[in-house]
Amino acid sequence: MEEKKSLIKNPSFQAILTSVVCIILGLLIGYIVLLIINPVGAGEAIKTIILNFLTRASSMARAKALGNTLAKTAPLLMCALSICFCYKVGLFNIGAPGQYEAGACIGLYAALAWNCNWIVCLLLAAVAGALVGSISGFLKAYRNVNEVISGIMLNWIILYLTNMILTRVKDPTSPYTMKLSSKNSGALIPSAGLEALFAHNKTVTLAIPLSILFAVLIWVILNKTKFGYELKATGFNKEAAKYAGMKEKQNIIVTLAIGGALAGVGAAFLFLTGYQEWSTTQSSVPVMGFNGIAATFLGGLHPIGTIFASFFIQSITDGGALIDKSVYPSQISELISSIIIYLCGFVLFFKYALNNWIRKKETREISKVDGKVIDTAAAGKEGGDK
Predict the structure, then answer these.
(1) Cα 128 from chain centroid?
(2) Which terminus of the chain has fewer Cβ atoms in its 10 Å neighbourhood, N or C?
(3) CA distance 56 to 104
(4) CB-based contacts of 144, cutoff 8 Å, min separation 6
């Protein structure tokens, strides 16, 4: 019994439990919406959204579809880690989409205009994202400009700059950039044999295991290093950090620069796999950066939890694209993701309710035990009097 109680009280277990509650409620509300649109195929639609690649007819098709989901999970995970890292230091990096755009811009330009190999392109994408992130960091540290405001503004500025720059390396017959496979195959991230595990899906590359390694690295930095401790201390109270001799302004800039580098690498993990090309007529900020917010909070603001949350978010997004579009909009999966994000805002409330229930239950048990002790003591006293 004591072991069970300690498990329920464990913060990690509570984070997992509340995330599962958010997922179940999000899927339930999504199912209700499907019922309202058309009750006949609602069950099949929600099943398709949840199962995604498992709904494919053959094992080869399932393996290839799983590979596609994993290929898009890697960049989503990097964006989620970008937001998670900054949030742990008390900063909300809503500028991750702009940093992602910068990584795509420089990474693709280096590949198509300069014929650089994939390692150089990856490093340049990280540097580009870090530079954009450091702009928000500088404004926050030295001018007290809220990072949310500067981040949103930079998202749009970088979007149109990216469109302008990548127009120079676009395909003459389309608005998309040239294909790396034909222009510079050396810029493609290698598969290292992973493609054979997913029906020879060439978009399954080293980006997938590398993104997981980044998640582990971020956890180690935040929890096992002096550097991570100083960053978190600055996030908790920058004035106290300054009093303790920490360089609080530098820490803010470094934090957002690292967050930007992670988002920039995320873009490289998508566009340098050849999965898709950049559209130079794009007029909206890439959703990948914003989906990273969902994955971060659903993962309990933990780098390792973010791995599983990113896969889940990407899986239901891909699953939503498989439903009958003549009856249901494919955006239903995005609606479910949005609902889950909204519910994640109540995670602290769920934890409070759970801990409150545990305290009340323990109080009742203690009261029962005390009552028995009192009754026994009273009986003993009566026996002595006789």
Answers:
(1) 20
(2) C
(3) 31
(4) none
CB 259 within 8 A of CB 154: no
Q: Which two tokens stand for residue 46?
A: 């929600």
Q: Is 331 helix (H, G, I), strand (E, B) or coil?
A: coil
Cβ-contact 129, 260 below 8 angstroms: yes
Is residue 375 a part of any domain in this protein?
no
CA distances from 165 to 7, 105, 154, 379 (A): 53, 7, 16, 89
Residue 196: give its domain's CATH number.
Answer: 1.10.3470
Per-residue pLDDT reduced to its tens digit, 134-165: 999 999 999 999 999 999 999 999 999 999 99
Q: Which two tokens stand for residue 250?
A: 């530098």
Q: Is residue 253 part of a domain?
A: yes
Query: What's the Cα-to-Cα distance from 14 to each of 78, 90, 129, 209, rounded to whole Å?
Result: 24, 22, 34, 28
Name the DSSP class of 176. Answer: B
Q: What is the pLDDT of residues 271-318, one digit of tens each?
A: 999 999 999 999 999 988 888 988 998 888 899 999 999 999 999 888
List, as one string, the DSSP characters of 246-290.
Answer: --HHHHHHHHHHHHHHHHHHHHHHHHTTTS---BTT--S--HHHH
Residue in 286, 329, 292, 323 with CA at minimum distance from that of residue 307: 292
Mean pLDDT of the 96-118 span? 97
Number of domains in the chain: 1
Closest CA to 265 of 107, 125, 134: 125
Q: pLDDT averaged over the chain? A: 89
Q: What global pTM score does this model have?
A: 0.88
